[in-house]
Design goal:
The chain is built from 9 helices and 7 strands. The protein is of the alpha/beta class. α3 packs across α4. The protein starts with a helix and ends in an 8-residue tail after the last helix.
Length: 223
């Protein structure tokens, strides 16, 4: 999110949507969405950016039926913005979590697929042994809706593609630590995953790749 907002010469961020998630850091999909929403506000505060009219709460649950959308503030705002776009000037939607909000928007107004392009960090490469990947596994029905909708879709496969995009604590100490409050916060988040303080340790920076695709698509091409 910070990468997108700070790339103003390349991107115009029109909205930020909180998505549900459920793991050991949340008590339910609804709690995960709310935690995401609060984290978005926290990051915007670090960046001195206003949140009014920019940030929207998403679905509090996963899709239960491929014909029944969940009408969250995020899904409805996405529909509104997509309907104002055109095939020649489409709205790019980047999803770095489960894709419930996007699937619901498509179900609410199927015509938006003509005006949008979806970039999703989800699933694994088709040659990978399984599709057991967190963003996909959270809401399989939503993924089915998006994949079957005909919407222009760019997938950044988690394994074995994005899993190679890693960083280390020494690298972050050099480029982030001490630069500003936001940089320090991001540094501490990554450092927190290295709970055993291992010297030879690296961490995938999953979400950055989906934004990087929009900034320079050639970075995602095979050579």
């Amino acid at each position: 999110m910070a990468y997108a907002l700070l790339s103003e010469d390349k991107l115009t961020v029109e909205a930020i949507y909180a998505a549900p998630y459920f793991n050991d850091r949340s008590e339910s999909p609804s709690d995960g969405m709310e935690k995401s929403y609060q984290e978005i506000l926290r990051l915007l505060d670090f960046m001195n950016r206003p949140s009014d009219g920019l940030v929207f709460r998403g679905s509090t649950e996963y899709l239960q039926d491929i014909s029944k959308p969940i009408r969250s503030d995020a899904a409805l705002d996405l529909v509104s913005k997509a309907m104002k776009s055109t095939p020649d000037n489409p709205l790019y939607i980047v999803s770095t979590g489960c894709i419930t909000n996007v699937a619901s928007a498509i179900l609410i107004e199927p015509q938006i697929i003509k005006n949008i392009v979806v970039v999703w960090l989800g699933g694994n490469d088709l040659n990978w042994p399984t599709q057991k990947e967190f963003n996909l596994m959270q809401d399989v029905l939503a993924a089915q809706v998006v994949l079957n909708s005909g919407v222009p879709l760019v997938i950044t496969p988690c394994r074995p593609v994005v899993s190679h995009f890693t960083t280390t604590i020494p690298e972050l100490e050099l480029y982030l630590k001490g630069k500003n409050d936001l940089s320090n916060y991001l540094y501490e988040i990554v450092k927190g995953y290295n709970s055993q303080n291992l010297d030879a340790w690296s961490k995938e920076i999953w979400d950055v790749v989906a934004i990087a695709y929009l900034i320079n698509p050639s970075w995602d091409r095979q050579t």
